[in-house]
Amino acid sequence: MSNSMNDPDSNASVLNNINSNGTNTDISTVTSTPLSQQNIGGRKLTSRVWLYAKKSDDGQEAACLLCDYTCSCRSHSTSTIRQHLIIKHNKLDLILKSSSVLAKFKISEGLKNELHQLCYYAIIKDGRPFNDLNKIGITALINKLCPDYKPPHRNQVVRHLKDLNKHHHDLLKEELKTVYRLSITLDFWSNRKNESFLCITGHWMNNSLDSISKIIDFSCFNERHTAIEITKVLREKMIDLGVYDKVFCITCDGAENLVLACELLNEDIFRIWCYAHRLHLVVINALGFWMSNKKKNTDEPGYSSANILTFNTTTSNVTDLEIEQENMDVEWDLELNDDSWNINDVDLIDETDAYDTSNATANTEFSETTDFYDDEIINEQDIVELMNDSWSNVIKDLVNLTQPQKLILQVLKKCRAIAKILKKSSLISRFVRKEQDSMKSKKNISNDCPSRWNSTFNLIDAIIDLKHVIIKLFSDKWSLNLRKDQVSKLAKIELTSENWDLLSALQFVLRPFFLATKMMSGKEYATIGLSYYAIHEIKCFCAKEDKCSEQSKTFKRLLADKLTKYFYSNSEQIHHLQRLAYFDPTSHLCLNDKEKQQIEHYIRKLITDDVYPLESSSNDNLTSSSTLSAQIQVKPSIFDEFMAACGQEEIILTSNMKEKSKRISINEELKYFKQVVQQFNAAVQPSTKSAKNFWKAHKDRLPLLTHLAKIHLSACATSVPSESAFSQSAFIGRKERNRITGEHLAYSVFLKDKL
After folding, report:
1. Are 682 and 674 contacting, i.e. CB atoms less than 8 angstroms apart?
2. 19 and 47 share one domain
3. Same domain, yes or no, for 123 and 74?
4. Does position 396 have pLDDT exceeding 80, yes or no?
5. Element containing residue 531 per DSSP (H, E)
6. Which pLDDT tens digit goes with each residue over 419-456?
């Protein structure tokens, strides 16, 4: 260090004012001229750095006044000494606003790639717009957390999405190579751009008897929706995935094109009903929730997608009075759709949005040309409206409504009108909210839709739960500051005591159907056995008429008739369902002895004919557990002696031994299986996990049946897995993301299931 830098006379006064912990008490008052204003080499020092440092006489070095640190400062640079003062002495006032010292620390390439991967994960998993992380607010947050990091641009995201899709498809193919047999569900969906998509989900059980469900394909379907085209595409996709010879069965709805496509695909692959879809048909057609024209017999795409349902008011055998009544019902809907209910548009938008977004109508808040296309403004009703799948193409057989169905439909129209009014009028919705708060009720009155029957149950349930609020609304209608014509419209939809009785009866008879649908559609998908048992219990419930009101009895009879039609009239489907259900202990609570004997005959044939050859591990278990069959002495027949004389003795005896060994082994297992199933059902409550728990406990004693159980229990009771994928795709492709292409939408749905 130069002598000038260590001159005690020049620095003593400054050092005396620096305390021992490295902080400056008052440097500016120590010298007559502030350090920032001293002239060295004829140059005026203006940087605040020189409050804490001193430059040498030749201007080549800078020394820290708070410690013994020195550094070069050629060309009057202060960056090095500034960095030292900020980091070592916490002089944050020296940080430059234009270029933070923290930004000098460049993040490593590895960290940058890791952050990029997290961004891709967030965009895919949360269904975010591709450029979401580059918006002003999120950019400010990222800059604060990691100043030198910039999230990937939307173009980077699109490129990476394609690469990631290929990577996970390759991983899926490798995983499927280890699968022995699997079942699939499939369905079609159309977005708001009328782009069609095919979803295929795969379901199998691994060697640990854990159920695995995955989307194995989600892609655009640009062909006509004919059975031949569907079969062609399905076969190509299964061959590409390497599972064409591994598919055991297909679960789908009853659309004619899908039914025929499954028949054309492979004679070894059979189709089973979607239980939830059949329940939907039972309820809709038994109780007449929606009137429509006769079903058109076609398999064109327009009829496998959502169709606008219209009221049939020109049916034969309908009196003029009934036509007039139905026309009046339609007028209620028309009146509720006019602008007279928009009492205060500003209040309606603000209040509804602030209270509950599930009731808000986003379409009235933003136009199609708004800049908010990336925002997540979507609610449950929007999702339902986007669900353009074949559920809304209900096979209705309502040509002439019965009197009970007419009463149901008329009351439901009143309930739907109430739900619409709550959405349109800020005054009425404010009144209902206030009364709800006083009751501490969280029920939400939302309108139903034709494609989901349980939405009608939710509407009925909410109306009944808020009965006192609804009654108070009608009794206080003159005090709500409504116009006279609006009060008159409100009076038309007032629920009478008879209406309330009918709603209560509907709620009572539909609750088992609602809970069964909920159980089958849960995250833990119900097995065929549990679903079969649920339908059996519903049938028994409809047959019981004790302790029921007359209306409840009538509704039960209507439902029982449709249950028979949609579940028990097709003997082929019943046989498929019973064979699949047999491997779930729950089904043994409702299968009779004759049905069990038929299924056991089917099982013996599968084993003796070696339809599903055992894997090596299963063969080892079979050898160790079948000690009895190994000791059997087979008496040779004349044919055996003849073959032995021809030198074929070993082959024939070995073949006979194997066949007899299998037959005895499966008989032993079936006998033991029936015993432990009875014990299991006596001790364990049926659930979505009971079948898996049973086979995990008895797989060592039942190697043959366990092998078959892994195959049969892979079958899905519903096509809900595909429906669930459609719910995700509806959110990803929502209106506010109308720029997303069909290809990128398909990538996003497939990858969300894998990440």
Report:
1. no
2. yes
3. no
4. no
5. helix 528-543
6. 999 888 888 999 999 988 888 888 889 888 888 888 99
CB 691 within 8 A of CB 211: no
Q: 3-state class of 34 per DSSP?
A: coil
Element (H, E) at 64: strand 61-64
**CA 383/CA 292 separation, integer angstroms:** 23
Contact 424, 348 (CB under 8 A): yes
Identify whether residues 706 and 723 lie together within a single domain. no
β-pair partners for 221: none
Q: Compute the C-alpha angle 236/722/506, nearest 5°.
A: 145
473 plus 545 within the same structural domain? yes
Phi, psi angles (nearest 5°) of residue 288: 65, 45
pLDDT over threshold 80, residue 20:
no
Q: Is the pLDDT of residue 344 over 50?
A: no
What's the whole-number mean pLDDT along residues 673-695? 92
Q: Which of 727, 732, 735 is nearest to 743 (CA)?
A: 732
Q: How far apart are the first and last CA of the chain?
A: 60
**Neighbour tally for 6: CB within 10 Å:** 10
Return d(Cα 560, Cα 335) in angstroms, integer.
37
Domain-embedded: residue 576: no
Residue showing tokens 């349902």:
309
| pLDDT tens-digit series, residues 60-91 | 899 999 999 999 888 778 888 898 998 889 88
Please provide the DSSP assignment of 397-417 as one string: --SS--HHHHHHHHHHHHHHH
Torsion of CA 615, 618, 619, 625, to 10 degrees: -170
Spatial distance between the Cα atoms of 25 and 48, rounded to a whole number of angstroms: 15
| Amino acid at the residue 455 | S
pLDDT of residue 540 exceeding 60, the answer is yes
The secondary element (H helix, E strand) that includes residue 427 is helix 426-439
CB within 8 Å of 228: residues ≥ 6 apart: 261, 264
Number of domains in the chain: 5
CA pair distance 659, 666, nearest whole angstrom: 11
Q: Which range among 215-219, 311-315, 739-743 shows the weakest confidence by mean pLDDT?
A: 311-315
Query: Does residue 639 share a domain with residue 622?
Result: yes
Please tell me what DSSP assigns to residue 18.
Answer: B
**Contact 255/424 with Cβ under 8 angstroms?**
no
Asked whether residue 583 is domain-assigned, the answer is: no
581 is a domain residue = no
Which CATH number do you get for residue 739?
3.30.420
Report yes or no: 229 and 223 within 8 Å, Cβ to Cβ: yes
Listing from the earlier edge strand, what are the strands of the sheet with 61-64? 53-55, 61-64, 70-72
> Which residue has tokens 């854990």?
210
Sequence-ordered strand ranges (E) for 246-307: 247-251, 270-272
Residues 335 and 417 in one domain: yes
Residue 240: pLDDT band (50, 70, 90) is very high
Q: What's the pLDDT tens digit per position in 171-211?
A: 999 999 999 999 999 989 888 888 899 999 999 999 999 99
Q: Tell me what the pLDDT averaged over the chain comes to.
A: 77
| Run of H or E residues at 465 | helix 453-465
Beta bridge partners of 205: 211
159 with 119: CB under 8 angstroms? no
pLDDT, tens digit, 9 for 90 and up, residues 409-422: 999 999 999 999 98
Domain interval for residue 144 = 109-152
More confident position, 458 or 395: 458
**Residues 375 and 513 occupy one common structural domain:** yes
- Helix (H/G/I), strand (E/B), else coil: 299: coil
User: What are the tens digits of pLDDT across the range 350-378?
Assistant: 333 333 333 333 332 222 322 322 333 33
Task: Please tell me the distance from the alpha carbon of residue 642 to that of residue 430, in angstroms, as a whole number.
Answer: 95
Query: Are both 100 and 182 inside the same structural domain?
Result: no
Residue 579 maps to a domain: no
Domain closes at, from 89, 121, 152: 152
